[in-house]
Amino acid sequence: METITHTGVSPDAKWIAYGKAVNDLLSSSTAESWNRELWTMFSGFMLAQNEMGRSENLSNTYFSFKELLEFFERVERIRKGK
Question: Which of 4, 6, 33, 77 has the fewest CB within 10 Å, making it most exposed?
Answer without folding.
Answer: 6
